[in-house]
Amino acid sequence: MFDSLADRLGSVFEKLRGRGALTELDVRAAMREVRIALLEADVALPVVKDFVEQATERAIGAEVIRSVTPGQQVVKIVNDCLVELLGSEHEGLNIPATPPAVLMMVGLQGSGKTTSTAKLAKFLTERQGKKVLMASLDVARPAAQEQLRVLGEQTGVATLPIIAGQSPVTIAERARQSAKLQGFDVVLLDTAGRLSVDAALMAEMAQIANATQPHEILLVVDALTGQDAVSTATLFKAEVPLTGVILTRMDGDARGGAALSMRAITGKPIKFAGTGEKLDALEAFDPQRVAGRILG
Ligand code: GDP
User: Does the keyword Isomerase apply (predicted)?
Assistant: First the structure.
């Protein structure tokens, strides 16, 4: 992940660092290369435009060019802009004081939604001492409910007993009621996915969100899908009030476009990153650390 972007930016900065003095033209030339590097990493075009504009504006500030180490200053500015693009600081989950917190997972089929639900349940249980209940609202694929039940067994996290024939909204309400009665802190609702965005999926998702008023609606997207992840996010954002993103397959060789575009496109932070198939492969997303991986 990020390897070729890191290489590209590394060579742009190598040239800058070696220079004593910099002119505005030098800075603009370097920023053009940064632009190309970001586009090649599959970062969404409007995001690249804003990024380069901001970084250029800051970098041609008189103090920077006239400073003793202008090259290093420019590198620092790009680093700061990258951290801001990624969200500045890790943002945790909104867990209200009065339980149960209701967290709804949305995303396309295959994005890693069900796996991320189980990973998040395990994370909240083991790292934060929460009592978690998971429920699958995917009534279109009976195998999906069974998959979550099995994951619950593997992680030792409770799952809502399956009752055939119930609607997603009814299951969600039953989950919340059970959580209240049985003293669960968090309810994780794993909603249905489709292979691509369709009207039925969107309508069902909006209906569940309206009925349950979740504290978090987390969009699960696959980092490997690049620009597709960006268009998926745009469509989901138009339907439900997303509160955050979980980016999966960060262990793969994604170019980084989805990771770098997601916050700007959704206006919401990436809260967690999936880093493998195992159920403990979930990390709190840390913008500083990720920017560090890109800039070395
Ligand atoms: P869903 O259809 O969105 O619920 O997707 P699943 O949760 O069933 O995941 C689809 C596949 O992706 C499974 O084989 C998962 O093990 C795998 N997967 C999920 N998250 C990650 C991740 O962060 N890294 C890797 N390498 N694989 C993942």
Answer: no
**Angle (deg, nearest 10), helices 3-17 and 24-40:** 170
Q: What tokens were used for 102?
A: 């209701």
CB distance 208 to 201 below 8 Å: no
Nearest atom in ligand 1 to the alpha carbon of residue 119 is: 20
Nearest atom within ligand 1 for CA of residue 252: 26
CA distances to 91, 103, 112, 187, 269 from 96, in Å: 15, 11, 26, 12, 18
- Is residue 289 a known part of a binding site? no
The token pair that represents 39 in the structure block? 């586009």
User: Model confidence over 176-226: pLDDT tens digits?
Assistant: 999 999 999 999 999 998 888 889 889 999 999 999 999 999 999 999 998
What is the number of the ligand 1 atom nearest to the C-alpha of 281?
23
Could you tell me the distance, in angstroms and rounded to a whole number, from the CA of residue 114 to the centre of ligand 1?
Answer: 7
Amino acid sitting at position 263: R
- Stated as kind and residue range, the H or E segment containing 158 is strand 158-159
Nearest to 246 by CA among 226, 278, 223, 280: 223
Tell me: is residue 158 an annotated ligand-binding position: no
Quickly list DSSP for 137-151.
Answer: ---S-HHHHHHHHHH
**Residues framing ligand 1 (Cβ under 6 A):** 107, 109-115, 193, 248-249, 251-252, 274-277, 281
Residue 23 annotated as lining a ligand binding site? no
**Residue in the structure block whose two tokens are 């890191």:** 6
Cα–Cα dist 169/210, whole Å:
9
* Beta pairing class for 186-190 and 216-222: unpaired
SS3 state at 132: strand
